[in-house]
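For the sake of clarity, the format in which proteins appear in this thesis is described at this point. The fold follows as a row of integers, each naming the local backbone shape at the matching residue. One such record is shown here in full, so that the layout can be seen directly:
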Amino acid sequence: MMRATTRNGWALGLFMATPGLAAAAPEAVPLYREIKDWVVGCDNTRYCTAVLADHSEQSRIFIRVQREAGATGALHLTLLGSTDWSGEPLLDGQPLMAAWRITRHAETQLQVDDADAYAVLRQMRNGQKLVDDTPHQERESSLQGLSAALLLIDSVQGRVGHPSALVRPGDTVEDAQLPTLPVPMAPALVERPTVSEEERAGITQVVMARAAAQDQLKNEYDVPPELEVHPLNDRQALALLSYNCNDFNCQYALYQVARSAPHALAPLAFEVPASPVNSLTRDHISFSQRTGELYSYAKNDYPGSCGTEEFWRFDGQRMRLTRLLRMERCVGLGPDYWPVLWRTQG
């Protein structure tokens, strides 16, 4: 059985930094950085994620640290290990005891939050190795770079010198000095009447004529171009043209088209930060009728292994970014575990 420990508050009195130390200005966000065996991403609200992303050839314990900005920002630590993992994690050979919440599926998930997560991370940041010692399924993970990754999170969130800092806590920074940014609202999902067959025929004629003029009907791999027409609102439609497709990806052209004749069209506009789905050449672009979102990924390896995922929604004039995930290291982690660099609500 895993032994539970509890702590009240942050209990940081033993770790105070030198009074009078001036706090450095918080790092700009969004931020993505690789530090030894770790990847750190902080989004537009200063919500930060640190993920173990080493290139070890052996099975690893997956480790993720997530923290919200602000004095009351939640802190989460997640470990994923072997299916039959039943003992405490071993930190440099010693049990790492905490009030773990355990969930068992294909893998065993251990989670701990807030003050308990803080206490565990204070131990882990000075360690070298974390081990899941399940017989015959041992997993081992490097902690190289964890301390620097946690310090970067503290810096982004303005915590260096604050009692809640993971690496350099102190009493020189007050709660009110911690930067917080609101979560922006996503464009509202408006009613989008279905595109009629008459509208579709007129839009197709205009878009294909433009595509031919722009050399967007090339077919080097014997796969014909495909045009999708999706309603954006009652006045405008999205024309999504995929062309020159091979077994792995396509080239794309995106147009914003008037639904009424003569179907005036223009390249689909994107709001800054447009990182960078509007290059029009991605590994995959699709549109969801249900969510009204344009989805794109650029992969650095096989799909889902590493790269960038982006989600956009139309605001009546342009596509606005609603969510962005990024993982440049190809270490077999799916998008569910990638750092989020942009988020919205609604």
